[in-house]
Amino acid sequence: MEVLRLAIHSSNLGYPRIGEQREWKKALESFWNGQLEEANLMETMKTIQLSSIKKQMAKGIELIPIGDFSLYDHVLDTAFMFGYIPKRFGQESERRWDTYFAMARGTSSQPAMAMTKWFNTNYHYIVPELDGLQPRLMENFLLRDYQFIKDNLSIETKPVLLGPVTFLILAKLSTGVHWHKHLQLLVPVYIELLDELYRAGVRWVQVDEPILVQEIDEDIVAAVEYVYHSFHQKVPGVQLILQTYFESLSNYPEIVSLPVAGFGLDFVHDDGENLYNMKKYGFPKGKWLAAGMIDGRNVWKSTLVQKAALLEELSKHTEHLIIQPSSSLLYVPITVKHEHRLPKGLVDSLAFADEKLDEVRLLAEYAQGKRSLSDLCHYDEQTGEALRLLRGQSIKKTMHPIEQTERPPYAKRRQAQQQHLKLPLLPTTTIGSFPQTREVRQARLKRKKQEWDEKQYQTFIRKQIAKWIEIQEKLELDVLVHGEFERTDMVEFFGEKLGGIACTTNGWVQSYGSRCVRPPIIFGDVVHLCPITVEESVYAQSLTEKPVKGMLTGPVTLYNWSFVRRDLPRSAVLNQLALAVRQEVLALEQAGIRIIQVDEPALREGLPLKRQKQPAYWQEAVYAFRLATSAVRLETQIHTHMCYSDFSEMIDIIDDLDPDVISIEAARSGGELLSLFEIHTYRKQIGLGVYDIHSPRIPSRDEILIQLERALRVLRPDQFWVNPDCGLKTRTEKEAIASLQAMVAAAKEMRNRLFVSLQGGDQDDSKR
């Protein structure tokens, strides 16, 4: 075989940090709750890290990453390591991890740093703040981890570092300040870090620059050239792999001419463009090609014979090949070995992180001549029957366009809804969930272990609903929710109830901080089997005269937060999901629920990173949402919610979705989203989150008033809703109630001010 003449290494780009049984999450939350000392936390984290490294060693991975393990987020780690600690958190102290977690989660007196989504994934990173700060190498975390692993396991590892260009472009700067200003300051600090690694014996370093798969201009190309020429000049002994993922490399000829040891390219999510560019422009002689061949973002097994054919094609363009996943494995669960409840055919079709490393090893051994093509055929045959069974599932309903029901114009809907709902100015509400306390989790566990029957469990859920309806009425919220106590997760809950979707037992994936989710697996026709949310919503509505929102997850989020079969057209699956949501919307309406919220926090996550591919995605996403929500009556009010995305590029899309009310995260961004509405006239109703629910700190009434004042400078009072920026399931009861008290008080105060203003009282400051 042609591939046998290659120099071959197996590699991994990153491993899930949460632990096989979520030990990482449990240790962090125990530390934050004061139940675990810092020394014990660090000892637990070292144990988890060592276990992950040992597992990769056992899988035969040669270039094992370090720097992928983190106590919260790898982007936060980079900022902290380089001294980008905002001044509001004070100077570095002996209790440095208190500062680190304060940056991520906030304190009683200071808000947390902003958080947003990592490219088009559901992983959230902490946005670095650069203003007024000079970079310095506070501590070389990579050197610390390299020495720790070497001392304990006697192996060489590959440090992984977020590249300076991606880091700076993703960071937060004051208006008018360009990231280039920081580049000349930051590059010497990177060089200092790399030099320390080299002097300690490190030879391979993976530098992640995923920004290079987006459209980049000449300024970015020039910055990349400056950075990597500087690295080559100052630390020539380190073999740098310039790593990209999630798409094809942009500006291919310029980037592959950089003086680095090799280039990491994604051959899974690139639509064939990386190979096309290699054929058209060639690949630099003597450089390593780190080929991402195993899908790092989905859970289906690879067809290794097809991968072998790709290997042979790549071998025509390079003699130095590294075989690896397409991206870090952070985005998939750790192992399928705990999945005993999934249908057998489905289990046999899945590869989580550990199984993907097995696939990397098999391909590397094939390329090294240690395995034959028949070995790969045997692997494929073991799963082929199961895959054929799944692929045989018909797509019965949605291969052809479905006629939508067009809703009446918004102005007409608004009038009918206000007559029906009779809401006050600046109506107050929450996004949906209330605290999932230890008591709630224990009740769910008792049901799972069959210690409680279904009647006992439902009685408990009703008590929780009644309790929080009473709390909401005492708080004087205007639009209530039932609290979602029966739901483990907003996507998993619906995945458990819809046909054609399976849910895992232990398929946890990190979303942000210690928050983990279990993405469902869409393997067949999606079918609405029976009403899913009606019983709880109707019961909650029976307890109050105020309107209660029905709470649903939208079709695009169900798609983007699930693992979907690769062989199905995206539009077909989206439309099936939309039809299922539509049936639930109509069931709620028929049961008397007049406000229905169809959440789409993942609307932007499936958006291709290349602009030319985006219009088709938006068309399909908007179509699916409107298909799900357009059949309701005039007086039924449709809400949606989105969070932690770049809304500046999608405000027109939000308008096209045509909801009556949208709530958007705005608290961590300091209200920067408001600048959009200074240039874009948005005529429907909107709630910009007025406080950050991801931080344990409780906002004051005056803080929220400031947020309201800023919002009402650019939005009309009659279109503005007052709400938190997301659901409250991760907060304690005390935190949730205190924060909502402050929110309602601020809304009342603002209503009074607006009333006085309308009465002409704003001419006398003493009356304010």
TrEMBL record:
Names of the cofactor(s): Zn(2+)
Domain Cobalamin-independent methionine synthase MetE N-terminal stretches: 10-318
Entry keywords, A to Z: Amino-acid biosynthesis, Metal-binding, Methionine biosynthesis, Methyltransferase, Repeat, Transferase, Zinc
Catalytic function, reaction form: 5-methyltetrahydropteroyltri-L-glutamate + L-homocysteine = tetrahydropteroyltri-L-glutamate + L-methionine
First-level EC class: transferase
Pathway(s) it belongs to: Amino-acid biosynthesis; L-methionine biosynthesis via de novo pathway; L-methionine from L-homocysteine (MetE route): step 1/1
Positions of L-methionine binding: I431, G432, S433, E484, D599
UniProt domain Cobalamin-independent methionine synthase MetE C-terminal/archaeal: residue ranges: 426-748
EC number: 2.1.1.14
GO biological process, any: methylation
Active site (record annotation): H694 (proton donor)
InterPro entries per record: Cbl-indep_Met_Synth_N, Cobalamin-indep_Met_synthase, Met_Synth_C/arc, UROD/MetE-like_sf
Entry GO MF terms: 5-methyltetrahydropteroyltriglutamate-homocysteine S-methyltransferase activity
Source species, domain of life: Bacteria
Positions that bind Zn(2+): H641, C643, E665, C726
Binding residue positions for 5-methyltetrahydropteroyltri-L-glutamate: R22, E23, W24, K25, K117, R515, C516, W561, E605
Cofactor notes: Binds 1 zinc ion per subunit.
Residue positions binding L-homocysteine: I431, G432, S433, E484, D599
Free-text function comment from the UniProt entry: Catalyzes the transfer of a methyl group from 5-methyltetrahydrofolate to homocysteine resulting in methionine formation.
The family this protein is said to belong to: Belongs to the vitamin-B12 independent methionine synthase family.
Name of the protein: 5-methyltetrahydropteroyltriglutamate--homocysteine methyltransferase
